[in-house]
Amino acid sequence: MSACEYPTTHEKIAEVIDIHNFIDNVFIPSASTWIDLHDPATNNLVTRVPQSTDAELKAAVDSASKAYPKWKATSIIRKQQIMFKLAALIRENTEKLAASITLEQGKTCADARGDVLRGLQVCETACGITTQLTGEVVEVAKDMETRSYREPLGVVAAICPFNFPAMIPLWSIPLATITGNTLILKPSERVPGCAMIIADLCRQAGYPEGVINIIHGGAKTVDFIIDEPAIRAISFVGSNRAGEYIFTRGSANGKRVQANLGAKNHAAVVPDCNKNHALNAIVGAAFGAAGQRCMALSTLVLIGQTKEWMPELADRAKKLTLNGGFEEGADLGPLISPQSKRRVEDLIQSAQNEGATILLDGRSQKPAKYPNGNWVGPTIITNVKPHMKCYTEEIFGPVLVCLNVESSNEAINLINANEYGNGAAIFTRSGATATLFQKELEAGQLGINVPIPVPLPMFSFTGNKKSVAGGGVANFYGKDGLRFYTQWKTVTSLWRAEDAISKQSDVAMPTHS
Ligand code: NAD
């Protein structure tokens, strides 16, 4: 198999797609056991992904270790040319990548294209590497200068989640490699296909053998990455449960770890806002991608009289079409798995049991054409209190939980008391109120009248609090991303005429003063 061709319908496929490891620029069938993957819209079997063997995992590391010295020594211009080519190939293959995402992950075609394009933007930004990786130089004394520059780390690894099969691998591939590292990438075992297409595009773009290797599997593969001494750094995106474990054990093993975790993003609605814009933005950001985005607006904080807008919000949510992602006009697709559907439904039930009101209940909704998918329609829960499970847990489904407060200050205190701090949005026409939120909110990414404030890749993804491990020391992409994948080296040199070189030893600490 080369990179797989994915169908663009949810119809049962004749032959299940087998996913292979990608080592030394070759797709290699695994000798291991298989994990079956189902189309979330139908639960038909579509793909099989291997739990790679120890020997296969080791072969990937050996390949990356062998490729490293030559890749490190490759000129920055050559690396930049490869990146230009990769960006062009990803753009050309957007539809193919998006089809694999819709089939394996479930999101709509339009949303899957967005997934690809957001990743592509990281590649495109990385094409400017020749001005982004510059160091510093200072003349510290006569004939003496100190310069700093950045070197790659060696072999690095990326471990990805299921919800952005293109974007999140592309948070790592461009920056990890253009800085001179070689990379081992483990896609989510629930959506491996898109990364395989990207691997094929990397090969076509001219990446030499071993610079990018892709290995598959679940927790066993992750443990291999954490414990393998040749791997110097790990980029992780996913849940708190896995991420905190990987951060702790990876750091204890002496690796650099960047880890973006779960979220509970709040939108505060101030009565003076543009109501129409706010309601549309909230519906889109709460229910788009069936709520399976780390920056989904899953929590609404209604200030004062805005609680009276809820019936109108529910009317807009009711108009969204739940359907297979390949269907024209689908607004949201299914959840990733039957387990995920059950978990989301249980959380809705827990809200009801704890005394909240289910204003809009999506639990029995399903499209007629796809009765066997993992469907939950848009759901709105009102009168939620901060102690309720539907508020304290990340739901990761098309469920909006709504709390009422009386003032902007009360909204700020409520949002800041939440453990997570990925993002927040506020809707207001007042500059003074917006500034108050901007200064006081502890969320790492803030939108003012913007519902999903994920910055473009010239900035970094800047989650905060429990949404990042280790206090967010190493953000993804942007300047922080380049810093993560490189090690500063500083060189102080003295070049003087022979007759001016020191005549005797000086044992005191040099101070240059
Ligand atoms: P997940 O943690 O279940 O899986 C992510 C990766 O970790 C996968 O590759 C998986 O194989 C591995 N993994 C899972 N359990 C493991 C374990 N016990 N031990 C070792 N490895 C393990 O996450 P997911 O369900 O794929 O993704 C959804 C989560 O990711 C949500 O919490 C979401 O908020 C978060 N997310 C965060 C961001 C961000 O930037 N903050 C972006 C996207 C998704």
UniProtKB/TrEMBL annotation:
Organism of this sequence: Friedmanniomyces endolithicus
Family: Belongs to the aldehyde dehydrogenase family.
Gene Ontology biological process: L-valine catabolic process; thymine catabolic process
Gene: ALD6_4
A GO cellular-component term linked to this record: mitochondrion
Keyword Mitochondrion in annotation: no
Coiled coil residues, start to end: none
Pfam families: Aldedh (PF00171)
This protein's UniProt keywords: NAD, Oxidoreductase
GO MF term set: methylmalonate-semialdehyde dehydrogenase (acylating, NAD) activity
SUPFAM superfamilies on file: ALDH-like (SSF53720)
Protein name: methylmalonate-semialdehyde dehydrogenase (CoA acylating)
Domain Aldehyde dehydrogenase, first and last residues per copy: 28-491
Enzyme class: oxidoreductase
Oxidoreductase recorded as keyword: yes
InterPro entries named among the record's database cross-references: Ald_DH/histidinol_DH, Ald_DH_C, Ald_DH_CS_CYS, Ald_DH_N, Aldehyde_DH_dom, MeMal-semiAld_DH
CDD domains: ALDH_F6_MMSDH
EC assignment: 1.2.1.27
